[in-house]
Amino acid sequence: MKKLLSLVLACLMVVGMLAACGKQDGGEESKKPDASGNADAGKPTEIVWFIRADQPKNYDAVMAAVNEKLKADLNMTLDLRCIAPGDYNSKMQMALSGGDDWDLCFTSNWANNYANAAGKGAYLEITPEMLKEYAPDVVAAIPENLWNGIKINNKLYALMNYQVMYDQPGLYFIKAAVDEQNIDVSTLKDWDSLNAALEKLAKAYPDKYATRGGGVIQPLAFFQEETINSLMNYPWLAYDAETLKLDNMMAFEKLDGFLKSAKLWKDNNWCPADAATLKDENTLMASGQILSRYNRHKPGTEADMFNRFKQEVVCIPTGDATINTNAATSTLTAVNVNSKHPEKAIELYNYVFGNKEIANMLFFGLEGQDFEMVDGRVKRLENCWNVPQWQLGNQFNANLTVNDVDGVWEETMKGNAEAKLEPLFGFVPNRAPVETELATCEAIWNEYKDILYYGLRDHNEAIPEMMDKMQKAGLEKVTTELQSQIDEFVAAQGK
């Protein structure tokens, strides 16, 4: 028995040694403990990053190349998860509330609401020390005063994606259509002239849509003599630019032309019947079925539209360029408060932001598979990698495409420098004292917003009905509290 026991122990020792050698030979199970005994030390850190986009073509090949470089330079890998735009809000709500294992996500004032998520504690606070240590390239590139536009209660909960920072409303038109109908889009200066042009397009192309519809328009600046300033882009929380006093009805009076137009488009079938719930407008845009659409006006919009949808368009501005809190919060990247490695996540974001090679790989994919270089410029190939660059760090790192005009990035930077800040730039309401009332008013607004902005009902009937509900829900208390906060903010700024 002693001999048998000795033989068994000897065999077990040999098996153990062989297993250990197998792991140390560089197999997938290989782990090298650090001084503290951490068995995962040396293993690449995986960062999960959600963006609002359809999954691009050639995904596996591009991400393999991206991760090869990330592993070599940072000992990290990136799991870039693309969520379809129509599903982004609902799926991110689940991710934020479900405690899922992820690190970074796209957030903004218009999708996956930044202020709401940060206010509920879903995003990590990024301290000045963290920003300086883990995101030096981001700090160096973005003007210091712009950070004030994304602070909540004087704290930072996201990193800025750097691109056009000013907000200027605009429209694009399919060039072939307006050329064929002799429509000079530069003469469209108000709702009447725009509607006359849309009517002409609707009659000439009955199998297409003259416009996308009203809900995507940012009407507070669209065809306004001066941009209507508001809190959180809510027209029922508009304020006077000089007195800085809130007025619940002022904006609706100034939006009369837009609200009438939205109903005109709906009633005459100039926009899709399901415009308010349309999830896949990209297909309609790529096929030229939508002849005009709201767009954020900026240098290079025509080239951007051609790159994305292979449609030649002409664009016009329809309002002034301003840097407001909404513009500053229009494209951000937040860190999950439950991230297992938040510093690593910020470090990876900074690397993507500051490294032109990896940035352009994420922007355009792989040379020879997704694009080719023609005279030093990117020419996209068919069925290629395509993602929204403005969600992935610093868009100014992007190589010019064959369709870009010379100096587009310089013009954009000039626009950033020259655009004026809104009167209450950087003011973000503290919701806590009126959270219940404000949330109820927001729910009522969400009930009526599509009704108004897509012309589903006469606004002269819908607005009084909506405001009555808001008043009963505590709108007066909300307005009084937020006005008090505004007054304190103004006093602290020395205005």
Task: Classify the fold: give the CATH topology of the largest domain.
Answer: D-Maltodextrin-Binding Protein, domain 2
Alpha-carbon distance between the two ends: 93 Å
Kindly state the mean pLDDT as a whole number?
Answer: 90
Overall body shape: globular
The portion of residues forming beta strands comes to 5-15%
Which radius of gyration do the C-alpha atoms yield? 26 Å
Question: Total domains, how many?
Answer: 3
Give the CATH superfamily of the largest domain: Periplasmic binding protein-like II
Task: Report on the architecture of this protein.
Helix content is 43%, strand content 13%. The chain is of the alpha+beta class and 495 residues long. It folds into 3 domains: 45-165 and 328-421, Periplasmic binding protein-like II (D-Maltodextrin-Binding Protein, domain 2); 169-219 and 255-320, D-Maltodextrin-Binding Protein, domain 2 (3-Layer(aba) Sandwich); 229-248 and 429-495, no CATH class. Helix 17 packs antiparallel against helix 18. The longest helix has 23 residues, at 2-24.
